[in-house]
Amino acid sequence: MVESKISGCSMLTNDHLFFRFGKALEPAAPGFPIVCLNGGIMADTGNEKKNYIFFNQDRYPLYAAMGGMRCLIFTYDDEHMEQYCKRLAKAKKDLKLIESYTGPLLAFELPVPLFLHLKDTHPFKLITNAKLKEQALDPAIINPHVTTAGIYLNQISPTISGLLSGFYKFLLDNHINLSVRLDEYERMAHCALKWHDKANYVKLIKNSTTKADFPDHVPTAVLSSRHMDSLTWDRLKNFFSGETRVNDIEAFYIKSNIDTAGEVSAIVNKTNFSLQIHSLKQQIALKITAMERTHSNLKLLIQPYIKRSGPDDFPKTIGITYNILDKNHFQLVAVIGQVYEDREYKTFIGSYMSDKMTDQVMASIGKGRIKNLVQLFADQGYRGPVNLDAIRNNQNKYQFIYDCNPRLGGTFPGLILKKAFEKQGLIINNLLTLGYRGRIIYPDLASKLDQLKDLGLLYTKKNQKGIYIIPSIVRPQSFDIVLINLRMDKMRSILNSNIIDTLSDPGQKDLKGIYL
Questions:
Q1: Residue ranges of domains in the chain
Q2: pTM (2 d.p.)
Q3: Cα separations (Å) of 224 from 257, 346, 470?
């Protein structure tokens, strides 16, 4: 078992962030790598509707460009493609305006994406008209890097694996051969689905025969959702006690085994039991009907409700991401503090990163114990990025909560930003990203930049401490916000003030709250 050593994220290469099944490149071949940043696993697990793969791609093209990559984007038709191109052109103008205030910070190109039209059937099918065929066969796009290393992915699922296999076949039919293992795409797609299921994570720990020491996990029982109709508060307590040998729980956190962002979850106690269980049943029914799920028998993870606690120097909920390269080699990608938009800590909106936090978290939990946990997934055949979540409890200790995300998730913007800034010689001690979905609308960007400059809060080459604004193409006039190199108390002060909202369009605001 070998763990590559990094300090923060400054030594990361693109290879260490993604799923990739092509040849290792030493040195890198010329040309933009192509990256498919998509939510296929969310569609394939029924977290979202099948056409979700079209609707989350617009979050990433600028971040991919900062990392020196070209996005592969699935589109409906030429009109959909032109919409992307127009918004990217507007983003370029906004970047120039921002740079006129900040000075030159990030030297990167914003390449035209590789667009692939899909026919919206289940399964989806590739459409290749003359214009798209010309682009897809352009040697500047399908360059030596792509033909050697293949296409990088932040996550993989059967739908995405199938689409990329179809694209590779199209290239092969046109005498372009990519050095990839398509069988590995398919195998890892099904492996990712398996570990997206939290109940399998519980089973993995419970059935482990190794004597290795693992990080502390929250006591957890798994209940079939079909038993909810006969559930009472006393039966719930007795069931949990029988499964875990843990008694006297005053409140439980109940969550679905396959849903993310707390969408199917409830905090249950003796007083609110009937109301919360009824609400949970409605959430499950909505997912079954609206998301076209093929099964109604979800599993529910029953856990003691943990009140997040501890000092305010870092966020109280963390994610630890590793990339498993093979059975004996894996690399720490990032330790992030998670930022939420609700007091219940359900909806993830951003991340906090700092070398100091990384060192403290790893020391607190124990590097050896975390490596033992990652080794379990490696032994099961998993390869690629995997994120494991933990909560700091009122004893100031981290407990893992059986949330396994077999993908590079919301950590991506922060990782790319940190790497891009440091590549230009800028020092990043910490940064906090407030989403990557264009949640803030600034109709007059220049006025907002003037305001931040006057307040001394604009991150610039001369003042490497403050707020940095990134154009988004999710919606017109939308932006992402990043806080850089500020003390945590200063960050909290800014977040609790009206500074970010000032000069925004409150009618289009998509940021309900900010909770660390």
A1: 22-180, 221-304
A2: 0.92
A3: 10, 22, 44
